[in-house]
Amino acid sequence: MRTVFTVLAILAAQGAAADGCPVAPDHTEALDRLYAEVQRAPNSMVARTYSDQMWQLWLQAPDEPSQMMLDSALSAIRVGDYLRAMDRLNTLVSYCPFYSEGYNQRAFVNFLRGDFEAVLPDVDRAIEFNPRHTGALTGKALTLIELGRNEEAQVVLRLAVALNPWLSERFLITKPEGEDL
Any signal peptide, and if so, which residues (predicted)? Predict the structure, then answer.
């Protein structure tokens, strides 16, 4: 029965794609508050609660069909089914070309697959739509490190850590010559 529901939902989503995806919810106020809170957090455990709340907002797709595509992709990622995840994310990005998280998750799948060159266009697109997305920023930095582009990675890491000083990736920031951290 679940398979029938899934097939019907996918067909509905594909039909809805012809009508266009609505604009993603505007979470600017909530994110402003969360960024301020994470800046004031006394430790990483407290900061993690704010980061988790940011992820909850970023993972809210524009409508039910896009949410189903995203949720299906996330389920596939969790079990390592990257082909199915890519299929769902390709459909999501086609349906909702202005939804940052579709690009970010597709970049993540490519990172997990070790296709680092494929990560950058998607992660850049995610950052274009959501410049304060610390997950996308750190994903870009980690990708640049994998590609041996450490100076570029440092710039991106510093941007991410300026937004959230408790990111675990902060330990990857290196000290430029003659500068104290």
Answer: 1-18
